[in-house]
Structure formats: structure tokens, C-alpha cells
Amino acid sequence: MELHRDSPIGVFDSGVGGLTVLDECLASLPAEDFVYFGDTAFFPYGERTADELRDRSLKIVDWLLGQNVKLVVVACNSATAAALDYLQTQREVSIIGVMAPEAHAAVQASRSRRIGLLATEATVSSGSYERMVHAHDAGAEVTSVACPELAPAIQNGDEFDADLLELVRDYAAPLREADVDTAILGCTHYPMIERLLRRTLPGVALISSGVEIAREVRETLERKELLRAWGREGEYRFACSGDPAAFVESGSRFLQMPLGEVAQIDLDAVAAT
Length: 273
Ligand code: DGL
Prior knowledge:
- By secondary structure, the protein is α/β, with parallel strands linked by helices.
- It has two domains: about 10-95 and about 210-270, Rossmann fold; about 100-210, Rossmann fold (3-Layer(aba) Sandwich), CATH 3.40.50.1860.
- It is built from twelve helices and ten strands.
- The strands form two sheets. Strands 4-3-1-2-9-10 form a six-stranded parallel β-sheet, with helices on both faces.
- Helix 1 links the parallel strand 1 (about 10-15) and strand 2 (about 35-40).
- Helix 4 packs across helix 6 (about 130-135).
């Protein structure tokens, strides 16, 4: 396939979580254009099987390819854990996932070599983070906690109330017991409650996807000579599979930019054509 410097970058997640990655990319790659897809009709990915996630992710990549993207960013840990290698073998375009940069950053940051992981059930049960951390430090101790209620609470726009604080406290407790000094926020929704997490895990270095992936995207485009020259302000647009109004409502609470129009896409109908 022919790649063009002027083409947009495709980013996707199960919902609004990937906006924490997009937000960072918009700030550090201001000349680039972006197309974001939130698979809100299929949310939460954390409860899906690996087969479902592979199938769904491939449909999204194909829709993004229809938008002529030059690079795809899987801004979702659950989809990365289940589907990244499959997607990379199925399509020609370069596809970057989350996880590997965060695992590396966590190993670099941890002095005690005791690292915590908070993530969805799908991500924790895949064991991918442990493998990636151990690829960099075979002796690091990883304490993983599945947080099934956290991404839905964030995406549904639950209030930052005592219940949410209690929920976060419960999920963080095993990390405190294990005395980790570094914690991977292994779900792209979690940086949206970073202050709550910082308060619950005092003194623990929190590693999240945004900064790491933005760096990875920039380096990849630079090395492939696909980075756009500065001096223009890029455009970005959104699509989702569920209700666009709900996407705008939850998304605009977190993206530090206007969301604009959100298109609704039926991925199965697109795949059938
Ligand atoms: N944002 C997704 C991730 O990083 C998960 C949310 C979901 O369960 O859909 O894993």
C-alpha cells in the first residue's frame, strides 16, 4: 500500500478511554490529522473474549483504512492484549499498540522492582503485561488487579463521589499491600481519574499510555519519513458505533479540545459492503 505523509493517523478504543492517548497526541503532534473511533456499541471490551476483540478490532482497522490512514494506534489495552499481533499479521498498514511502552517505562521507573498493574479483566487474564515487564526485568515482581467496574464507571460519567473513591481504594489495596513503588494504569480510561488514583496510591509512580504512545507515534512517523512538517494546525474528527450524543457527553468531559460532530458508524454494515 502507498503511504502518504498527508494522511491522517487512526486511533481507536472501546469508547472514550483512548481520548487520553489522543489528547496527548494532539498536543505533541499538532500538525497531524487524526481520525478517532470509539466502539461504544461494543463497550466494555474488558468483558469480551479474545476472539470477539480480534474480530471487532479488525473491522475497526478496516474502517480506518477506508479513511486512508497512514498509521493505526490501538489506544486500548484490552484490544492490544487480545488482538495486536493478529491485526499486524492481517493488514499491511503499521499498527502500534499500547502496553509495550508502558511496561518498559514501569521497569525504568521502579527502584524496588515491585510493580503494580490495574487493568480490565481481559488485559489481566491475558498475562501480557507480566510477560512484557519480565522481558525487560525477569526479576521484577508484578501485582495485577482486575478492575471490572472501573472503566464502565468512568465511561458512564459516574460522579466523583464516595462510592467511586471506595471502589478505587478497594482495587488499589493489593498494590499497597505489595508495597509497589510504580503502578501501570493498564486501561486507557484510568488516567481520567488520575488524581483519585494518586491520592489512593501516595508516593507511587503512575505510568499511563498517553505520553508513552505519543512518543512512540512521533518516532515511528519520523523514522518512516511520514511525519508532517510543522507550521499547520492539524484536524481531527470522531466516529463511534453507539449513540453519538452519549459519546460527546462523556468525551467532552475529558478531551481538552472541542469534540465537534461525531459520526455514527455501523461496523457490521461497513464490513458487509
Ligand atoms: N480502555 C480500554 C482499555 O484500555 C478498556 C475499557 C473497556 O473495558 O472497554 O483496556
